[in-house]
Amino acid sequence: MTMDMIHNLAELTELAVEWNMLLKNSASDVPFLRFEYLTAWWKTLGGGEWPEGELNIVVERDEKGKLLGAAPLFFTTNCDGLPALMFLGSIEISDYLDFVTPQEHLPVFINHLFDLLARQAGWQVLDLYNFMDHSASLKILEQEARQRGWIFEKEFLQHCPYIELPGDFEKYMSEQVDKKQRHEIRRKIRRFESSDQPVRWYIVQDRASLEQEIEEFLKLMAYDPDKERFLTAAMRSHMKTSLQAIFDAGWLQLAFLEVGGQKAAGYLNFDYNNHIWIYNSGLNFDLRELSPGWVLVGYLLQWANEQKRAYFDFMRGDEEYKYRFGAKDRRVVRVKIQR
Asked: Are residues 122 and 250 both part of a single domain?
């Protein structure tokens, strides 16, 4: 087996097909590790989150040239002011990150990766954000670091509520949502549907209208002052580029709720790997009395059950409404390894 480090986007682009094929069989097959997502992230360094960085992607191949594993890393100065190797996608806009390799190969891959990194000058800390708390990588990283005398630290970060779906909306409501909240969800949906204006919800399907629909979603996001500050020019550019790439790859779910032809709520999700991943949302504050966010989540959960999706993942953030819909908790983890 051989390991190489990729430093330029042109060389990385040649890996697109085999990268995504490898991801399908990886221990962590999440949308933030898809090739199109990571390359879009790199072009803007996360919408301007990082002022500079250098690609340091490590790939491993067998003797026949087959891709066995990848560590999507870049070199930068981390939040602690240290020269660091970090995951592409770090930190704010990529909820789940990890290595790209099958579970059975993960121990060998991390061992070989550490052998390579031990010979690399420049970096002081391997600073890896947003592992899921059940990631198989965590224990292996700790073992490898301690065997080499490197300092290993693990920090639990944000909560990531999720719902395991039974494939039947009524069964989900009766078994996974408590009686009081079940009544509240149904009441909000009935009130919305009894509006004296036409109401509808839909998932964007038309590529020709996508750019305008993204603009409409960003307008909804900007009703929230915190999200408006988040939406810098660089971040807007990044989101437009990445969402178009994700749509073309077939796993974007951009959904809207309308009242009288006016958009009341929008949800930006990923429909990937038999999961619905709830990435971001926007609400028209002028229509808050209709609870459009709750209503649209209800419709999306009904759709996800009907389409036999296995999970509805709210991802990072412990907002109360997620638990009212019956979500279970887990967290993401940061690992710091200093040599």
From this structure: no
- Cα torsion 269, 226, 221, 91 to 10°: value is -30
The CATH number of the domain where 21 resides is what?
3.40.630.30
Over residues 31-53, the pLDDT tens digits come to 999 999 999 999 999 999 999 99
- Which residues pair with residue 68 across a beta bridge? none
Q: Report pLDDT digits (tens) over 161-197.
A: 999 999 999 999 999 999 999 999 999 999 999 988 9
Name every residue whose Cβ is closer than 8 Å to that of residue 212 and which is 6 or more positions away in sequence. none
- Interatomic CA distance for residues 277 and 194, integer angstroms: 29
Number of domains observed in the structure of the chain? 2
pTM (2 d.p.): 0.95
Query: Quick one: which of 100, 135, 133, 141 has its CA closest to 117?
Result: 141
- The three-point CA angle 130-134-136 to 5° equals 90
What amino acid is encoded at 9 in this protein? L
Residue 267 CA to its chain's centroid (Å): 14
Same domain, yes or no, for 301 and 171? yes
